Each structure stands twice: as structure tokens, then as C-alpha cells.
Amino acid sequence: MISCTDFIPAYSELFKYLEGKGGKKAVVDFWNYLSDNFLGNLKSLVEKNGIRGCWMYWSHTLNEEAADFTMELDEDKGEFIITMHNCPSKGRFIKESHIEPYHDYCEHCDILYRRVLEPLGYEYAIDMSECDKAKCVAHVRIKGIEKNNDTQTDK
Amino acid sequence: MDRRASDNVYLHKDFHGALNAGIEYLHEHYGADAVRDYLRQFTIVYYAPLISRMKNEGLSALKEHFEKIYEIEGGGIKISFSEDELVIDVKVCPAVLHIWSQGYPVARLFLETTKTVNEALCEGTPFTAELIEYDEKTGRSVQRFYRSGA
Predict the structure, then answer these.
(1) Is residue B82 part of a domain?
(2) What mean pLDDT, rounded, does chain B reach?
(3) Interface test with A, best of B13, B14, B15, B52 (most A CBs within 10 A)
(4) Does the N-terminal or the C-terminal CB of chain A have fewer CB atoms within 10 Å?
């Protein structure tokens, strides 16, 4: 058995293996598959609870992953923000020098969640400019709500 | 919500489900050999420090590895150990148990996460791995490692 605590390097090596088989497209195809087949819990939580479903989903996963993060939910503004101060996955690659992560490792967080949330009526943006330091900011917003403006527009 | 890494224990069992999905995907799109190739490649790269310890310290390094992961994951194991042989009797596989509990089908080649990984751990060491028993429904298994030629 591969322990779930060793999953992150196994995941990264899977991305490398797939890229060796069919280039970046093979990796993205897998991310799309995983999003469609493995994130049903995020989808159902958001369908049932609206943007609060994001809070519920990531409260579970990020605590179990022992992440170092700040999570904010403003239901009036239709906004949910995760500020990742130290991503346990990327942080592990920084710490464990004998493993080299897949070159676009962090990109899976963009594709997997965007693919679930956008069809449900949300905008999903992730700032990965500091992902080499295991930091990122993910921002979910109800479509049709202007940035820095809490007036909802019907669309 | 503010959390520091030290606030929680790192144990996200849903990762078993994600690996299971990856194994099934690889099997479906690239064939059974790809599953084994990938798991072998992962094992040799990621467990390189463990393999190095097996070469230097013998089966005690592997025993420690298994004791640690089953202590973290739960699931009763019984270990029989000597310098030349390590037998691990896994009553219920925590990974298989979790995948079932979440309502996902277990990948057809999920046993390779035990069989291929164990075989790859022994590559280049004086030891051989053998999967004596494996129950696909529960992941119950008997895994044997022994000194080659013993």
C-alpha cells in the first residue's frame, strides 16, 4: 500500500509519466478526467449550499492536509478566498530534495476546480505567481458580481 | 479561518481515492503495463532513501517503514521478522477500506500498489518480494520479503 501521506509525490510522478506518454495534453486530459470523476463532493456541496459549499469542501480537505492557510467567506459579496501561506504539497517538494516535482505541478489546482465551479456559475481565479514558495491565492466569486462592489447584477 | 500546519495531523485519506482514480485511468487509457511501469518508476524515485537503507541495513529498514505507515493509517497488521525474512499480514487495507467507504469502485489493478511497489523496493537489493495472498474486496494481504536464495 502506498500511504496517503505519500500520495503527493505519487501524483507528481503520475503527471511526469503521462507527459512521457502523450505530452502535456495527456496530463491535462487526466486532470479533466479527475475533475469530472473525483470532485463530485465539491460539486454537490456547492449545488446545495452555494458559495458556502466551497468553505465546507476546503475546510475538510485543507485541515486534513495540515495546510497553512487563511480562508475567507463573504456570502453577501459572493466571494470565497483561500490564501495559502504554505501549501503542504508544494512545500513538501521544497523540503524533500530527492524528488523533483512535475514542472507544472501547481496547474492542476487551476484546472480541476475551475472545471467544477465555472459551469455552476462561479468565476475561479488563482494567483500562482509565488507557487515556487508554496504560496498561492485562490478566489471564487459568483459570476455577475463586480469586483470590489457588493451590488449583485442579474445575468 | 486561519490554520497553521501544526494545528492538524497530515492525514487526508481521500488521496487514496485520487490514486485509485489515477490507476484506473492509466489502465483504461494506456494498458496494464503502464500501471506497473508507473508504479515502479514512482517507487524507485520516491523511495530511493528507503531502498538505500535496505541495502545497508537489511529488512529492518523495511519493517520500520511498514510499521510507520500502518500506524498512521490504521488497519491491523501482524509482522514476522528475521534478518532473512519479513512477512506482513495485513488484516484490512486502509486504502481499500477508504475507497469503498466513499462509494468508489476499487481500480482493477489496485493490487499493483502493493505488488509492483514491493517488487520495485527490492530491486538492486539482496531481497525478493512476494505477494502471497491478496483479497481484492478488502485488500487483506500477506506480503513476504526474503533474502534472495534463502
Answers:
(1) yes
(2) 92
(3) B15
(4) C
Contact check, Cβ <8 Å, B21/A33: yes
pLDDT of B14 reads 82
Q: How far apart are CA A77 and CA A60, in angstroms?
A: 23
Could you report the predicted ipTM of this complex, rounded to two decimals?
A: 0.92
Q: Which residue has the cell 470590489?
A: A148
CB B141 within 8 A of CB B131: yes
The CATH number that applies at residue B37 is 3.30.1380
Total of domains in chain B:
1
Check whether domain A4-142 has CATH 3.30.2320, yes or no: no
- CA dist., res. B112 & res. A125, Å (int): 37
Per-residue pLDDT reduced to its tens digit, A5-64? 898 999 999 999 999 999 999 999 999 999 999 898 999 999 999 999 999 999 888 776
Interface test with A, best of B1, B2, B67, B112 (most A CBs within 10 A): B1
